[in-house]
Amino acid sequence: MPRHTAKAEPDDPRRRLPAVGVLCSDPRAQAISAAFGAAALAESLRVVLADARGRMMAEGSAAPDAAALLDTAERRLGLKARETLHSVINATGVVIHTNLGRAPLAPEARTAMDVVASYANLEFDLDSGRRASRHDHLDGLIGDVTGAEGALVVNNGAGAVLLALATLAAGSPVIVSRGELIEIGGGFRVPDIVAQSGARLVEIGATNRTHLKDYEAAARAHPEARVILRTHPSNFRITGFTSAPSVRDLATFAHARGMLLVEDLGGGALVDLTPYGIADEPMVQDSLRAGVDLVIFSGDKLLGGPQAGVIAGRRDLIDALSGHPLARALRLDKLSLAALAATLRLYRPPANPIERVPVLRILTQSVEVIARRAAALRTLLATLEGVEAEIVETNSYAGGGAMPMHALPSRALALNSRGLSAESLAQRLRTGETAVVGRIERNAVLLDMRTVDDAELPAVAAAIRRSTH
Questions:
Q1: Scanning 74, 155, 157, 233, which has the fewest C-beta atoms within 10 Å of its C-beta?
Q2: Which residues share a beta bridge with 441?
Q3: Eight-state DSSP code of residue 183
Q4: H helices of 15-102, where?
Q5: Are residues 281 and 300 in the same domain?
Q6: Which segments of 109-252 are extended strands (E)?
């Protein structure tokens, strides 16, 4: 069937929009063509005009003039020409935002990355002049912070679990509670990782209740099993009629039968967050003290560093993992290694990680501090016409698979712009010269001030001004 498009009536305001050819003949367009090319400018103008027609139909807005259309086309071309990966201001309220790169790095970590950007002694012993291991830079640091005998770091948490199982359980059963067969971001599931390691998954218990007798039955049925895998449900919670053995009881059970207990903690908290109202996040040190043989946790979640999968525990097991061929395939690059080392040093006395590690500082800041930040931003927008900015109560979240369902009380600036829908305003904020990512609630754009730094407020205010005029 033929497609029909809406036609503008003779008095339709959309007829007032200039044609692409007319805009391209504008004197201002010559400079834009020289910078980006005539064909690119024409294509950009077609998109800009189509967008303008859509807004005029949906919102009843007036037709923009030629200067405004050319400005928008030039801005689109500039954004398209710049790097696809660039910094954004996170105003979503999600602290460890997976889509925005998870943990923001501490200044010390960024400096460390700059230092090793050129040649560095990554695998070179300066004293002896001989080859060394890159793992030596982190092993002692992780031991100092966690109390582990040894440590190995690979490029992410899933890779760490894969390496541990491939080394310790390939060709043999791995016992896992059904309530812990989780799926992490990107569709990766524990059963798939177990299968890729060469191990065989043995599911026990029920989704909500698993007992030591279930582990006992599995051990009798599979006497060749060497590993029990325990996974922390870091991105969901099962509540109500639930039961599971404690980590200490499970470690005692495993060791009495000559088995190993490997625990994937996910978030990897290295400090006690209970005084700040966050009571359900286990600490790496507690698992090691309880007898877990290997604890696996992420570098870019609650630890607050770069993407990495940290494996800490018994020295003999760490040595075995280091010698597996997968260890080279999954190894950490020098930039991430330097950033992680610098972040770990912030956990050693006399440094206070709550103050020095951005993720921890953001998670633990008070509502009063956040409210003052919201008020400061509203003051910066006091003279802005056509925009309503109201401070509202809201909830932030840790994100990144940490502390699911644990709401963090926060404050946000709710924006309503005359002549712009919430979707249009949010899109303009995301795609402006300074990208500001918020969220939409109740037909308003919310900028959650928990995840915005004080130093970013002038840039946020400038982005709002540009997006609404």
A1: 233
A2: 444
A3: B
A4: 20-24, 27-36, 38-59, 66-81
A5: yes
A6: 150-154, 173-177, 200-204, 227-231
Q: Which residue type sits at 427?
A: Q
CA dihedral 443, 448, 454, 460 (to 10 degrees): -30
pLDDT digits (tens, 9 = 90+) for 200-225: 999 999 988 999 999 999 999 999 99
Q: Is the peptide bond before 275 cis (omega within 30 degrees of 0)?
A: no
| Number of C-beta neighbours around residue 381 at 10 A | 17
CATH code (residue 150): 3.40.640.10
As a whole number, the mean pLDDT across the chain is 90
Burial 249-266 (b: 16+ CB within 10 A, else e): ebbbbbeeeebbbbbbbb
On whether both 342 and 384 belong to a single domain, the answer is no
The residues, any chain, with a CB within 8 Å of residue 74's CB and separated by 6 or more, are 32, 36, 44
Residue 11 has pLDDT above 60, yes or no: no
Q: Residue 315's Cα: distance from chain center in Å?
A: 31
> Can you tell me whether residue 158 is helix, strand or coil?
helix
